## 1
Amino acid sequence: MNVEQVYKDANALLDGHFLLASGNHSARYLQSAKVLEYPKKAALLTDALAQMIRDAGVEVDTVCAPALGGVLAGYELARSLDVRSIFVEKKEGGMELRRGFEIKKGEKIIICEDIITTGGSALKAAKAIEALGGKVVAFASLANRGFCKRIGSNNTAKPECSLPEDVPLFSLDDFTFEMYAPQDCPLCKEGKSEAIKPGSKS
Ligand code: ZN
């Protein structure tokens, strides 16, 4: 599967001149929710992800996603793995399990996101699960922004990655884009366009 092409076809991978939340500029932007608009396409992605997890021999009882971003990917991955799907939600300083969801002591859980950037939310989800006695056996995401090292990639983890090194990360592909400080941005220097905020209504 050409994962990048799937994202492009879904208009989830944008080319242009973007102003990121960090204040930096970039020529590419991943609008990760767009690739999940069509459930059947989403299922193709999570089927491929599930196969990677099975091939690695990782046993999973339950998929847990950090809300809101990870919920759809986590639900579809649970379907692909034929296991249970739950999610955790934000609370002050972390994440927690609500809505009557329960986990058993020693339950093998994979934390699933749509996209892993530095892995901050995934780590908070993992801590919430471990505090309840669950065992986090892996992290998973459809896309990896290249800060953390996924299984099968030659990239190395960057200091920004907050995921533990001893737990595998399964992800379909690396989407590593260059980011520029505004004063160093080559697109600004060309002078043909202004950086726009992706996802804004204008
Ligand atoms: Zn720029």
## 2
Amino acid sequence: MQKACVIGWPIKHSRSPLIHKYWLKQYGLVGDYEKVAVDPKNLESFILDIENFGFQGCNVTIPHKEKVFEIVTVADPLTQSIGAVNTVYFENNTVYGLNTDGYGFISNLKSGVREIKFLDMTCVVIGAGGASRAIIAALLGQGVAHIILINRTIEKAEELANHFGNRVSSAKFSELNNSISKADLLVNTTSLGMTGQPELEINLENLPPHCCVTDIVYAPLETNLLKQARQRGNPTVDGLGMLLHQAAPGFEKWFGIFPKVTKDLRNIIIDDLGK
Ligand code: ATR
């Protein structure tokens, strides 16, 4: 039986099993997907020996993504530019690492706003952590013209802007409300606005009416940022789709079918979020 898993430390709260088990059932596949808590000190041996642990591969979550990037034998150029891995698969006696967060982000926007074209866009991205890195790499790959990167710790925004080159510039949080005036896309990649976290303080007065607004936070499903944007008439896309879409490439690697993100699946996760 083909098996995959999600690894983290801790791992209790991961919703990945719900997603992959849904697809296994949907496509009538004999397989399984488990949660495995992997202590950082055992991470390298787990990844390099993943097949002997009984798995075709795994998803990787906090705090292991950067370390797993260093451990895997092969990573594609996009994953290399992100420096973090969320999907591992074993093929031809080789351990491969992929980062599908950016793919998930772009697919989610495309399914939320059908007419979206990334080419030549100006984007404002809030946050300069791991999620931001994957999203910036993906947006640059789609041909956006300019990304204004805003972060509380400006040094981290500057570091990322330098890493990604001249299409990315950094700005202070105090410049947020002004910098959105030219935005075609506004993204929150921080945990601000998540249940139990402080709110993202933002004034959307200067936001162009066509600007698409999205948040990687999906609990609550409609963050205050998305609510404010919706009330002004801007197109909005919530963060849950990114979680669902990022899972699809891994499923294909382990189980051989590229799965569909359906409304049904979305509702299963929404039900679970409410528990
Ligand atoms: P992830 O991998 O999910 O992106 P991370 O790497 O810890 O998580 O990054 C968290 C991001 O949220 C960072 O940009 C962080 O800003 P700093 O670089 O200044 O720490 C941002 N963030 C988290 N809490 C914040 C807060 N209360 N105010 C402003 N930014 C915050």
## 3
Amino acid sequence: MSNDLGLLHRFVPGNRRAAAPVLLLHGTGGDETDLLPLGEAVAPGAPLLSPRGNVLEHGMPRFFRRLAEGVFDEDDVRRRAHELADFVVAARARYDLAAPLALGFSNGANIAAALMLLRPDVLAGAILLRAMVPLAQAPQADLAGVPVLMVSGASDPIIPASNSAQLAALLKKSGARVSHRVMPAGHQLSQADLTIARAWITERDTRAA
Ligand code: MLT
């Protein structure tokens, strides 16, 4: 575990250095160890970079402040997205990494979406599990050709279907190549998310080879 570069984090070098590195972004109450098993299952052997969100809500780590469930402090979203972008830039230099693919769940997926909209050159792509629109007034970003997989839950009590559809549309409008799957699921992850994410990464690796 390392406490520098601005965010407490874990780095797992993996045994497939050629694989795209994965930036793991946990949900509310998670930490830097939370998504390591998911990262290893979805992208076996890939380098994994896993920071802990710097914000605490009743002791639970998050990546940005919120005013209520699903209602975000957008000034903080902007500030923390830039903080995370600077962390990724510094970590790439420290660990000699290519631009990472984000794999984020819930609050982690939301900060990944904000990162793409505010600093479109930082991520090589993203897997957004249970994501919602992070900013009401999103800047015009150039995400031409950036691959994004969104997996949403049709009965998610936190994220209305219209909201995740709006995020998919926003990313598409910015040029991203978005694949949006809506599963018969709620907010929690299941084996189906892992299977879909793994298949998406494998297809991407095969195309890049
Ligand atoms: C958020 O705050 O990012 C979303 O409401 C999801 C959550 O973390 O509960």
